[in-house]
Amino acid sequence: MKQDFLNLIKQRRTRYDLTSKSTLPKEEIVRLVQQCVLHAPSPFNSQSTRVLLLCGPRHQQFWQLVKHELQSVVPPENFAPTDEKLASFAAAHGTLLFFEDWSVVEGLQAQFPTYKDHFPQWAYQANALAEFAIWTALAENGMGASLQHYNPLIDLEVHRQFHVPLDWKLIAQMPFGVPIHASAPDKTFLPIEDRVKVACP
Question: Does the pTM of the predicted model rise above 0.85?
Answer without folding.
Answer: yes
